[in-house]
Amino acid sequence: MDDNYKTVLETVVDDVFTNMAFLFCDPIENNIDIHKYDGKAARMIFHGVVNGSMIAWLENSIIHEMTTNILGIDDDAKLSDAELEDALKELLNVLVGQFLVAAVGDKPIFDLSVPLILTSEKTNVDKLWNSSKSIKFMIDDRPLIINFHCERDNNDY
Fold first, then answer.
1. Is the C-alpha dihedral spanning 28, 15, 96, 49 positive or negative?
2. Helix axes 81-104, 3-20, angle to 10 degrees
3. Which pLDDT tens digit goes with each residue over 101-157?
4. What are the pLDDT digits (tens) for 60-107?
5. CB-based contacts of 49: which residues, under 8 Å, 6+ apart?
6. Third-level CATH fold of 3-137
7. CB-CB contact of 84 with 67 (8 Å)
């Protein structure tokens, strides 16, 4: 991952989790066993002056806590899978939007896909965790992975 994009993405992830989900995350390296955690992933694709995709994989309890924080409801509230998935997709939508504005400004127009939940069969957590295109974070000893792939359109910028 381009170091400039990595720095921007780390800042955006921290800002979005802090301001939207009221959760605090710290970047980490590969020093945990990702296999002991269960989570969900969502993916979004974008096209414009930069083309690419972003995948957000969050440990399940982070998704639940984030959702209750966003909705302003009790931490122990029962939430449906659909509610949890909607919150994950909305978080990814905000991450992509904030990243693109921070990385290339608010003037370029982008075509954004609808965020999609990736099935567990299509989510290779090992591959995400070990990818050079991933940034890893911890929220209270729970992992989250942001995988980002981007290419500039040489006709612009």
1. negative
2. 130
3. 999 999 999 999 999 999 876 678 888 988 999 999 999 999 999 999 988 755 443
4. 999 999 999 999 999 889 999 999 999 999 999 999 999 999 999 999
5. 104, 108, 110, 152, 153, 156, 157
6. Chemotaxis protein chec (3.40.1550)
7. yes
What's the CA gap between 121 and 2, in Å, rounded? 29
Which amino acid is it at 51? N
pTM above 0.85, yes or no: yes
For residue 149, the one-letter residue type is: H
Cα-based angle 80, 84, 90 (whole degrees, multiple of 5): 140
If you count DSSP H runs as helices and E runs as strands, how many of each does the chain have, helices first?
A: 4, 7
What are the sequence ranges of the domains in the chain? 3-137
